[in-house]
Structure formats: structure tokens, C-alpha cells
Write a structure and sequence with these properties.
Largest sheet: 4 strands, antiparallel
Number of strands: 14
CATH superfamily: Thiol:disulfide interchange protein DsbD, N-terminal domain
Shape: elongated
CATH architecture: Sandwich
Distance between the termini: 33 Å
Structural class: mainly beta
Helix content: 10-25%
Strand order of the largest sheet: 1-4-10-7
């Protein structure tokens, strides 16, 4: 863990130094990934399982570390929901990354590029509040280009959906996103 902390600190210092030399060439780390949240059911009835997909579009020329990292010093991408009473997280599913070799690392890294979909499997309990809910989500990532890594980011977003009474008929939503599993 100490090695990971030291490496992360060095990477951040290098990123800051590079940013000071070329502020106009490196974007702010929080602008590299644009995430959007989608819910699999409309509405979501109490007592049902459902999914939330976060589709993250990564800026061209950049990558973020995959959730399954190969080196202990690498900061993995994570997605965490802030669950209110009446919800249960069943599973978080992260896609496989791609193995790439970059100038700043002696080893290949497992990364995401382009567009990536992270999936939360949830259950709505019978005591969940009825009505519209904005479920807060936190996406954590570290963006890098071919030569430098930027400081890690924690980005907030929300999945908005309707909670309905148990037994309410629910329709599938966003089939193109949820059929890609």
C-alpha cells in the first residue's frame, strides 16, 4: 500500500509539473470522462431487481485505469451508489479492460478507452419510499494520456427514476444499453 501511495504522489507531481509547463495542452482531469446514468425499468416496482448502467465517454487521446488493475500502485476505476433505506446493492459489474503499453510505465496496464459501461445490479426492498428518486452515484477514475497521468477524480452523478408499488407493471427501458451485457 505504501508503494502505491508513493507512486500515486509521484504521478500527481509529474502531472502538476507537466500542467504547469503546458496548461493549454492538458484538459482538467474532471472533464476527461463524461458519464451518464440509465435505469433498466420504468417504473421500478418495490420488490424487484433492476440495473443502473453508467455509460462513461472518455475523451480521445486519454484512457482511465480499468477496475481490475494489474499493479498495486494503479488507481482503479470504481462506481459506488449512495443507497438510501430500502435498497440493496447486489453486484457491481465492470467490463474487461484492454492491455496497453504506455511510455510512462514499464509494464502493460489494463485500461478503458472510448466508451465504457459500468453496471450496478440493485434490488428495491418493500420499504423503499414511493415516488421519484435521484440516486447519487460516485465515479472515481484517474485519466492518463500516452505520457502522463492526471490527478484522480471523484465525479458525482445521479440516476433518476420512479419507485412504484409492488406488483406495478414495469417496462424495459434503454434496451440498447442493457442488451449489451
Amino acid at each position: 500500500m505504501r508503494r502505491r501511495t508513493i507512486f500515486s504522489f509521484v504521478v500527481i507531481l509529474l502531472a502538476l509539473a507537466a500542467g504547469a509547463r503546458s496548461q493549454s495542452t492538458l484538459p482538467r482531469p474532471d472533464t476527461i470522462v463524461k458519464p451518464l446514468a440509465y435505469v433498466s425499468l420504468e417504473p421500478v416496482p418495490r420488490g424487484r431487481a433492476f440495473e443502473i448502467a453508467v455509460v462513461a465517454e472518455i475523451m480521445d487521446g486519454f484512457h482511465i485505469n480499468a477496475n481490475k488493475v494489474l499493479q498495486e500502485y494503479v488507481i482503479p476505476t470504481t462506481l459506488e451508489p449512495e443507497l438510501p433505506k430500502g435498497f440493496k446493492l447486489v453486484e457491481t459489474i465492470y467490463p474487461q479492460g484492454k492491455l496497453w503499453k504506455f511510455d510512462f510505465s514499464p509494464e502493460r496496464l489494463n485500461v478503458y478507452e472510448g466508451k465504457v459501461t459500468l453496471l450496478l445490479k440493485l434490488e428495491v426492498q418493500n420499504d423503499a419510499p414511493l415516488g421519484t428518486l435521484k440516486l447519487p452515484l460516485r465515479l472515481r477514475y484517474q485519466a492518463c494520456n500516452d505520457t502522463v497521468c492526471l490527478p484522480p477524480v471523484r465525479k458525482s452523478l445521479a440516476a433518476e427514476f420512479e419507485i412504484a408499488a409492488a406488483g406495478t407493471k414495469a417496462a424495459s427501458a434503454h434496451p440498447k444499453i442493457f442488451s449489451q451485457k
